[in-house]
Amino acid sequence: MERQVAAARNPSVSKKRKMATRSGIGYDVHRLVTGRKLILGGVDIPNMKGLEGHSDADVLCHAIADALLGALGQPDIGHYFPPSDPSIKGISSIDILGKVAGIIAEKGAVVINLDATLIAEAPKILPHVPAMKENIAGVLGLDAGQVGIKATTSEGMGFVGREEGMAAMAVASVEV
Q1: Euclidean distance between CA atoms 121 and 100, whole angstroms
Q2: Measured between alpha carbons, how far is 27 from 19 in angstroms, rounded to an integer?
Q3: What is the DSSP string of 90-104?
Q4: Which of 14, 49, 143, 164 has its CA 20 to 30 A from that of 124?
Q5: Tens-place pLDDT, residues 95-126
Q6: Residues paired with residue 147 on neighbouring β-strands, in sequence order
């Protein structure tokens, strides 16, 4: 009886499930260090410092992966790719997104769009955005127009402003 009442109030609660649009939010942050490549959106960007992490530390891809997993109601990427797992040390974050694409397919979901913002003082990101969008769209089976990537600074404030690290935020919409 409760299910019937819930179904009457909310059409998405029924025995025959209908497609629903769901959203997820992702956030990631990594420390900048010397001696590492700076990889963002799967693009190797010339810079004096790179991001520290167990993988290639691509904050942009990590935030997108978490947004996608969140939209599916799944655990974050740390669950699927724990830093304690030596077999994935140095893994490309584009490969992580590829594995997330597999999870999306397993759940019978389809990505509608992604929107992400990189928060960094330097380097300039705009020249690299088209390649980032192509990389991310390609691994997720999307059109580049379904991927939004922007960048902003923190106006010299905080760890990002002191150029100690970078952060990224992402929102994903999926149809399940």
Answers
A1: 29
A2: 26
A3: T--HHHHHHHHHHHH
A4: 143
A5: 999 999 999 999 999 999 999 999 999 999 99
A6: 114
* pTM (2 d.p.): 0.89
pLDDT, residue 19, reads 85
Binned at pLDDT 50, 70 and 90, residue 1 comes out as very low
CB atoms within 10 A of CB 63: 27
The b-or-e profile of 20-48 (16+ CB within 10 A means b, else e) is: eeeebebebbbebeeebebbbbbbebeee
HSE of 35 in the Cβ direction (CA atoms, 13 Å)? Answer: 2
Instruction: Name the residue ranges covered by the structural domains of the chain.
Output: 19-175
d(CA 166, CA 151): 11
Which of the two residues, 7 and 36, has the higher pLDDT score? 36
Q: What percent of the chain has pLDDT over 70?
A: 90
Tokens of 95: 């490969």
Give the C-alpha separation, 79 to 88, whole Å. Answer: 13
For 41-128, strand residue ranges (E) read: 43-45, 49-51, 110-119
Tokens of 52: 């520290």
Closest to 62 measured CA to CA, from 174, 168, 159, 160: 168
CA angle 103, 167, 31 (to 5 degrees): 105
CATH superfamily for 19-175 is: 2-C-methyl-D-erythritol 2,4-cyclodiphosphate synthase (3.30.1330.50)
